[in-house]
Amino acid sequence: QVQLVESGGGLVQPGGSLRLSCAASGSIFGINNMGWYRQTPGKQRELVARVTSGLSTNYADSVKGRFTISRDNAKNTVYLQMSSLKPEDTAVYYCNADIRTRPWSSAQNYWGQGTQVTVSP
To answer: Disulfide engineering: 35 pairs with which of 43, 50, 74, 116, CB 3.0-4.6 Å?
Structure first.
């Protein structure tokens, strides 16, 4: 069984910073892409940032220059450093990963439970 557990969300003032963490645990052979998505009520979940196993990254235009995604493969953990936060960054942030549980298996997609980020004065 594979689990993704997020931490680091909370309330922050505009212009502030937060760092989200997501640790994968369980029967893991390898992890391909890892990423962060976010969702607000009534809207579709959207990609915020993604990092490949080769450490290539891509970001939503709305967060470029403000957010940085990174990963620690030894810890099966992905991070999202968020700076210069804006009220429109308020959302539930979800961790996502493509994980192989056996050497011969294809990767399956997993989601974390979500962590709330609120940017407000």
So the answer is: 50
Q: pLDDT by residue (tens digit) across 29-41?
A: 999 999 999 999 9
CB environment 31-59: b (16+ within 10 A), e (fewer) = bebbbbbbeeeeeeeeebbbbeeeeeeeb
Annotate 90-117 with b (16+ C-beta within 10 A) or e (fewer).
bbbbbbbbbbbeeeeeebeebebebbeb
Model pLDDT for residues 74-112, shown as the tens digit of each residue: 999 999 999 999 999 999 999 999 999 999 989 999 999
Q: Which of 4, 29, 3 is nearest to 105 (CA)?
A: 29
